[in-house]
Amino acid sequence: MSDDDDDLPKDLAHITPAYRRALWIVVGLNVGYGLVEMVGGFVSGSQALKADALDFLGDGLISFLGLLAIGWSLAWRARSALIQGLFLAVLGVGVLATTGYRVLVLNQPEAGLMGLFAVVALAVNVASAAVLIPHREGDANVRAVWLFSRNDAIGNLAVVVAAGLVWWTGTAWPDLAVAVVIAGLFLQSARSIIRDARADLKASHD
């Protein structure tokens, strides 16, 4: 980060060149591995991997939207964050719905493949979160991008644990349970993003 970046107040973190670079890295990592993990979810039969792949793709989309929002007014950045929060809520509901379907037509995922994809995903998410740590404070749009990346790392750690439990128990229930936990994390973060976006919208009109 340059000296000029260090002099900027936190509420202007979204305009720094370092933040732009961080977002491009996050977009590339998340969209690329999201596509790979979605294939892995279908091959292994893991609902948790599919849910996590959606989180990757969503994170990449949100990070790209964050890039587009750089330079916008506070009101439009807040609207961008509001869209991000609503999108995350839709993802959460979608994961819950597909997990409910899997409960009705239960089958056991391939624990080995599930664990392999989850470990790689965890490494990708830790890398994404690491480049965003210096940029996690700011307006609702900046915080939304950070929450998406943080959720990815937490979700992947849970998927790694679920893969071990699927192997140990010989049942699909740990996989389904983790998918529900990830969905809950989506919904909780969506609520936080929407709340912050509404606060920024109010501030932009004051």
UniProtKB/TrEMBL annotation:
Domain spans labelled Cation efflux protein transmembrane: 23-201
Spans through the membrane: 22-44, 56-74, 86-105, 111-133, 153-170, 176-194
Keywords from the UniProt entry: Ion transport, Membrane, Transmembrane, Transmembrane helix, Transport, Zinc, Zinc transport
Membrane topology qualifier: Multi-pass membrane protein
Gene3D superfamilies: Cation efflux protein transmembrane domain
Record localization: Membrane
Name recorded for this polypeptide: Cation diffusion facilitator family transporter
Source organism (scientific name): Roseomonas populi
